[in-house]
Amino acid sequence: MTTDILSISGVGKRFGGLRALDDVNLNVKKGSIHAIIGPNGAGKSTLLNCLVGRIIPDQGTVTFDGGSLLGHKPHAINQAGIARVFQTPEIFGELTVMENVMIPAFAKHDGAFRVNAWQRARERGAVREEAEHILDDLNLWDQRDHIVNSMSRGDKRRLELAMCLVQHPKLLLLDEPTAGMSRADTNNTVDLLKKIAERGITKVIIEHDMHVVFSLAEKVSVMAQGTVIAEGSPEEIKASETVQEAYLGGAHL
Ligand SMILES: Nc1ncnc2c1ncn2[C@@H]1O[C@H](COP(=O)(O)OP(=O)(O)OP(=O)(O)O)[C@@H](O)[C@H]1O
């Protein structure tokens, strides 16, 4: 029996004459933290976009939790249990931290269940409790009534993570979660991601910061020119000559 929650097989995507993805094969084990690294333009974001329904591959299959993801709209994929944290947080700047976390929590509930008014009122309490719990976990509780526009970039990214976690995803996609952060904020984010690892959510992380990759990932896939050129544990990837050559032109990771 397979323990893979996500299987990408033979995926290809062209943009005009450019082959952005070329026969991509990649399997993600349930409950693992799987990093995808590679130089600029390797196709990492395009692949992620295929997983959330923003881009439809020209070829190949993508199977998540036993069903095909292809042809489904982003909203349906989100309801199926995939949440994504973007490079630029997608949050509501005029609202408070708590309001931002409540929105996806309710969206998840309303999408998952058809409820009458009484049930809905009862669930309201449960949803709020869950939101409070997650804000506490992500060290955002003290800022719960702050208007989001006034927060630092690092805090906004943490908020976006909270907005994903409150949906109880089976798979969390993190697109450069530490991009533009100071070293201190990066280290905090790494600690946080380790902490939420205990929730058993599978994570796929695209990241340029090798310190982040090697401190978090159990498995690393290396992409270059639209395809996966190497795969292994962080130690195997660090030691791989193919990776050193193709990814960094011979420099050491
Ligand atoms: N919508 C698009 N239309 C045309 N070309 C695109 C489009 N999206 C991506 N590309 C091209 O596809 C290739 C792969 O881009 P992609 O953004 O997936 O790479 P990446 O590995 O995520 O890079 P980075 O690390 O810089 O984010 C690049 O050459 C890019 O210019």
What is the fold's blueprint, element by element?
Layout: E1 4-15, E2 18-29, E3 33-37, H1 44-51, E4 59-64, E5 67-68, H2 74-79, E6 82-85, H3 97-112, H4 117-137, H5 153-165, E7 171-175, H6 183-197, E8 202-206, H7 210-216, E9 219-224, E10 227-232, H8 234-239, H9 241-248
Parallel strand pairs: 3-8, 3-9, 6-7, 7-8
Antiparallel strand pairs: 1-2, 1-4, 4-5, 9-10
The structure holds adenosine-5'-triphosphate.
> Order of strands across the widest beta sheet?
6-7-8-3-9-10
- Percent range for β-strand residues: 15-25%
List segments where confidence is low: pLDDT < 50 over at least 5 consecutive residues: none
Roughly what percent helix? 25-40%
Count of helical stretches:
9
The tally of structural domains comes to 2
The CATH topology of the largest domain is Rossmann fold
Computed Rg:
19 Å
Order of helices and strands: EEEHEEHEHHHEHEHEEHH
Helices and strands: which structural class?
alpha/beta
C-alpha end-to-end distance: 35 Å
Spatial shape: globular
CATH architecture of the largest domain: 3-Layer(aba) Sandwich
- Give the names of the bound compounds: adenosine-5'-triphosphate
Keywords: ATP-binding, Nucleotide-binding, Transport
Domain ABC transporter: 6-250
GO cellular component, one term: plasma membrane
GO molecular function, one term: ATP binding
